[in-house]
Amino acid sequence: MSAFRRFAPMLAIAAAAVSGINPSRAAEPAYPARPVKVVVPSVAGGPIDTVSRLVSDKLGARLGTGFYIENKPGGNVQIGSNYVAKSDPDGYTLLTTSPAHVTNPLLYSKLPYDPLKDLTGVAMMARVPLLVVVNTDLPVHSVQELVAWAKAHPDRVRYGTSGAGSTANLAAELFAMHAGIKLDHVPYKGAAAVLPDLLAGRVEMTVDTLQLLGPYIKSGKLRAIAFTGAKRVPALPNVPTLAESGYPDAVAMSWLAIVAPARTPQRVIDKLAQTTTEVLQENDVRKRIAEYGMEADVMTPAQVNRYFDAESQRWSKVIKAGNIHVQ
Which of 226, 267, 300, 312 is the most exposed place for a label (fewest CB within 10 A)? Predict the structure, then answer.
């Protein structure tokens, strides 16, 4: 009996080798073995938060443990991102993020972390076309009329966004660059803060999500001019895109993705990525994301990281051309 005990570990390793199981992998604990923290770098109720809660609940149901949200807003996603970047790379602290993830290094002279080195892509969740809307007193009903009016009235199209360097700011500048017009940017502390001035006519235009602007469009208080995405959005099927309005190079999408600390084990990232893909293929999930004015999107971890690199290069040109900077 003592001889068997002495040789049992070696026999187990030999059996694992014969069966094709990596002995070191066989000893690894199952993931996830405890609840997973999902950091959302924005306030509760916004687009990132809404989709993060939906996907996290579904991940928890499929993987048999809780995926709970912890909001860490501030610094244009910097506070939450820095927290996750400095967390243990074990898969138990994740971050859901947006384009600020790749544009912050282009806008700020110094960050406490490197988004593209200290964090790595896990999965895409959704693409988010933005919506160009105007105050109803502005005599424009289409992209063509907006461009004509802006050219005829230089320096008189003021647009508000959630802040300098925001996705909305970059999307508007991209459109202005290709349309050959000048738009006067007025930054606010948050997207919702733009609305009182837009409704009162103190700014003429904004660019933001359907989730925020939809109720005002449906009530007739604001006029939708175009979506910034590549195709129309089912929730507002009569609103064209910038591409079909003659500006295909002005297509701009926000997005929502999951990232993890760099050096997180690949097996953990792959499991999260595969499960997220399964979640995003559920009909009810796709329907709810579509109701938010977004489109569920699936990418592998490698595709996510390549997308981040491409987005960084693209927005770098817009930021330089528009002389956009953050104080």
Answer: 267
Domain match, 141 and 283 both: no
Tell me whether residue 160 is in a domain: yes
Strand arrangement of the beta sheet that strand 222-227 belongs to:
184-187, 158-161, 205-208, 131-135, 222-227
Whether residue 152 is contained in a domain is answered as: yes
Tens-digit pLDDT profile for the chain (327 aa)?
A: 444 445 544 544 444 455 555 554 555 689 999 999 999 998 888 888 999 999 999 999 999 999 999 999 988 899 999 999 999 999 999 999 999 999 999 999 899 999 989 999 999 999 999 999 999 999 999 999 999 999 999 888 999 998 889 999 999 999 999 999 999 999 998 888 999 999 999 999 999 999 899 999 999 999 999 999 988 998 899 999 999 999 999 999 999 999 999 999 999 999 999 999 999 999 999 999 998 889 999 999 999 999 999 999 999 999 998 888 886
Count CB neighbours of 301 within 10 A: 22
Could you give the C-alpha distances from 250 to 11, 183, 212, 254, 289, in angstroms and in order?
A: 63, 15, 21, 13, 24
- Domain edge (last residue) among 222, 250, 278: 250
Decide: pTM greater than 0.70.
Answer: yes
Same domain, yes or no, for 109 and 136?
no
* Same domain for 136 and 240: yes
CB-CB contact of 307 with 254 (8 Å)? no
- Total domain count for the chain? 2
Indicate the residue among 250, 276, 298 that finishes a domain.
250
Q: What torsion do the CA atoms of 253, 256, 262, 266 make, to the nearest 10 degrees?
A: -110
> Residue 10 and residue 12: Cα distance in Å, rounded?
5
DSSP 233-288: -TTSTTS-BTTTTT-GGG--EEEEEEEEETT--HHHHHHHHHHHHHHHTSHHHHHH
Calpha distance 190→254 (Å, rounded): 16
For residue 293, being part of any structural domain is answered with yes
Task: Determine the structural domain holding residue 267 and report its residue range.
Answer: 36-128+254-321
